[in-house]
Amino acid sequence: SEPGAKLYRAGLVAMKEGKYPLAMARFAELQHKYPKSELTEPGEYFAANALYETGKYDQSILQFNDLVMRFPKGRFASAALLREAQAFLKLNDRIDARLTLQKLLNDHAHAPEASVANAMLKNMAND
Fold it and tell me: From CA 93, how far away is CA 43, in angstroms rounded?
């Protein structure tokens, strides 16, 4: 019943099938046609993940960051910060990865991603 649910489901199906460009198109269409939909936040998160999966780390970082700025207390904020940090590491940008992980821990200390963030920071300190 949610506006855009069909586009959202189509994007998820494309993600599961590894059809990332198709998924990105569906999620972008969702955001464009239904910007006020409750599915906009998860759609943006999965679109950023699709960018990450296709190796477009710079673009995924921008999209994850945009998501966190628009939905700082949203249910995907901590996951987006973790994935953003992973993208920074893929680009060998350890400073921004560390800063992003710190932001995750400062803003979402009780999120499930916090333990992963802590482990990543410890690994980075040992390198």
Answer: 26
Contact 84, 65 (CB under 8 A): yes
Amino acid making up residue 68: V
Enumerate residues 6+ apart whose C-beta is below 8 A from 106. none
> Which distant-in-sequence residues (6+ apart) come within 8 Å of 33 by Cβ?
4, 7
Inter-CA distances, 121 with 25, 43, 86, 105, Å? 34, 28, 11, 10
Contact 116, 82 (CB under 8 A): yes
Picking from 26, 77, 21, 75, the residue whose alpha carbon sits closest to that of residue 51 is 21
Helical residues (DSSP H) of the chain, grouped into ranges:
5-16, 20-33, 40-53, 57-70, 77-90, 94-107, 113-126
pLDDT tens, position by position, 40-60: 999 999 999 999 999 999 999
Tens-digit pLDDT profile for residues 9-21: 999 999 999 999 9
**pLDDT (tens digit, 9 = 90+) per residue, 66-101?**
999 999 999 999 999 999 999 999 999 999 999 999
